[in-house]
Amino acid sequence: MARLDGFSRPCCCKVWLPCWPTSLAPHAPTPQGWYFKVTLPGDGQSFALIYSIEDPAGGNRCAGVGAQVMGPDDGYLLQFSPQVQQFWADPRDLALGAVFKQRGPAQPLSALKRPLAPAAFEAGVEQGFQAGATWHQGAIVRQEAGAGGVLPSTVDSCRWAFSVRPVVGWGDVGTRQKATAGWLAALPVFEPHWQVVMAHGLATGWIEWGGRRYEFTDAPHYVEKNWGGGFPRRWCWVQCNTFEGEPGTSVTAVGALRGLLGVPGVEENVGMIGIHHRGRFYEFLPNNGSLSWDVDTWGRWRISARTTEYEAVVEATCSVPGTPLRAPTIDEGLTPFCRDSFCGQVRIRVWPAGQTAGPPLLDCTSAGNSGAVEVGGGPWFSTWRQQAEMAGPVKQLLNLPLDVEGLAEWLPPQLRPPGL
């Protein structure tokens, strides 16, 4: 065992990846998206690398590959291509990339659509990216033609190369990792499907943003993935893993109005709070307690939850306007659909259940304004106050003590859901 930032953990942390396949059948237009965040010192000085593929089989008007970067002070850059064959991903491991432009005709495209050594990537790929659990590399330029909506980039180019040391996946340290929203989220039941892949890691390397180079060592890193027909109709989200005096603490909190796959018109309000703190995981879901949120159209987030053991409150504020981002939509493909900022001030508190009048078990505040905040979908005409509501049968299923990772290991390879 090794000690790192207050965590006792195996030297090689496992991150669990219940991701739906990229090598989809020709009739499957399912979009997929990956979000990798690196937080640098200072208010709003962060980067998010956001990759997406719309209609991996190609053929419809929304098909395409997107590489978005959200940068310091809520800057923005997009490179989009309608050529889905430029994209590749491993159906089981966290490994993906795209080759937008080769560096000379020396190699066929197929030879570049796999994880490459850094020098080989640099020699063969002029514009594109590769991403994995422990290595990220890429170079993209402003190229917005074909993407939905009007959302201009604020810089012309971005390049990066950095390594990642995973620390925490999703769950207690040293135990099997969990599906983020319960075990059904690992299967094609809800729309969309979502998984926090790495609640906390440490990134070392550099990012060149519009000609300015940022170098970092052991910067907090966070990863999540989503897949399905499109994002929820409406949602709010808070994420932070840069807390004052509490290195390694991480929170992800969300409220969403989402659909049930295969049942048109059926939606439910669901939410989640997950907190990793000093090696302990606090999980709050609608199936194990109550959860509600009170979120303004922009600038204020409050998500609270209670189980039989604990109560939690996640609060965030943001005084800057943030930036719109593109997200997958069912009808318009990759189009402006949410607003984000890296300048959120975040506070998390947890108490024993029924003891909120007393001192909390944990009370953590972000280091300055370094939290990530988001509102998406809509309409957002006024404050959204909502209690999570989960259908009885779904709640009963989620409460079954099913070990999805163990079940996947028991199944023959040809019967395992991809990514499990």
Helices and strands, in order, run as EEEEEEEEHHEEEEEEEEEEEEEEEEEEHH
Major β-sheet profile: 13 strands, antiparallel
Q: Average pLDDT across residues? A: 85
Number of strands: 26
- Terminal CA distance: 26 Å
Q: How much helicity do the residues have?
A: under 10%
Number of domains: 1
Shape: globular
Structural class: mainly beta
Poorly predicted regions: 1-28, 414-420
What is the CA-based Rg, rounded? Answer: 20 Å
Number of helices: 4
How much strand?
Answer: over 45%
Protein name: Tocopherol cyclase
InterPro entries: Tocopherol_cyclase
Pfam families: Tocopherol_cycl
GO molecular function: tocopherol cyclase activity
Overview of this structure, please?
With 420 residues, the protein is mostly beta strands. It has one domain. Helix content is 6%, strand content 50%. The strands form 3 sheets. Strands 12, 15, 16, 17, 18, 19, 20, 21, 22, 23, 24, 25 and 26 form a 13-stranded antiparallel β-sheet that branches. Strands 6-5-4-3-14-13-11-10-9-8-7 form an 11-stranded antiparallel β-sheet, covered by helices on one side. A two-stranded antiparallel ribbon has the order 1-2. The longest helix has 7 residues, at 118-124. The two termini are 26 Å apart.
Structure characteristics:
single chain; 420 residues; mainly beta; 13-stranded antiparallel sheet; 11-stranded antiparallel sheet; 4 helices; 6% helix; globular; disordered C terminus
